[in-house]
Structure formats: structure tokens, C-alpha cells
């Protein structure tokens, strides 16, 4: 699992559509679908209910979505903190 897969999953979960998520992420739809499938295979659970329109999340998918948002937010905070430290804006990290 990598951050790219988390971002792709969040895009699909947010838009509830593989095509729109692919457009939002600036990639083709088939690679996006493959990445989500690989993520599901790695986790051993289905995250997305593909038989409904718009797409829905399974119970594990909803939990994974919430946690993915938290992880991605934390990564963004880490990037900001590191950049501020490099720029002399922060002297220490608490």
C-alpha cells in the first residue's frame, strides 16, 4: 500500500465514480481501477460496492476512507512542518 493508492481510493470514494476520480487524478480510468483492485487484494477486503450507481463503500471501505483521510492529512501536515523548519520559520518540532 502506498500514498498514491490512498489518494486514488479517496478520490473514488469522494466522487463515487471511477471515471470522474480518474479525471480528477489526471490518469486513465483502467490504471486507477487496477490500483484500487490491488489495494483491495492487499487488504483482503472489498472496499467499494461496484454493483450500485453511484458507487458505494462497504463497511470496511467506510472505515478505510475515514482513516485514509486522516493519514493523508497527517502527511500534508508533515510536509508543511518540514518546509517551515527548512525555511527557518520553525526552530523545533513539538
Structural topology:
Blueprint: H1 3-15, H2 18-25, H3 29-43, E1 48-49, E2 56-57, H4 59-86
Antiparallel strand pairs: 1-2
Report on this model:
This protein has 94 residues and is mainly α. It is built from 4 helices and 2 strands, in the order αααββα. A two-stranded antiparallel sheet has the order 1-2.
Quick structural summary:
The protein is mostly helical.
Quickly list its features.
94 residues; two-stranded antiparallel sheet; 68% helix; mainly alpha; elongated; 4 helices
Span of the ends, CA to CA? 28 Å
* N to C succession of SSEs: HHHEEH
Biggest sheet layout:
2 strands, antiparallel
Strand order of the largest sheet: 1-2
Low-confidence stretches: none
- In percent, how helical is the residue content? 55-70%
Mean pLDDT: 92
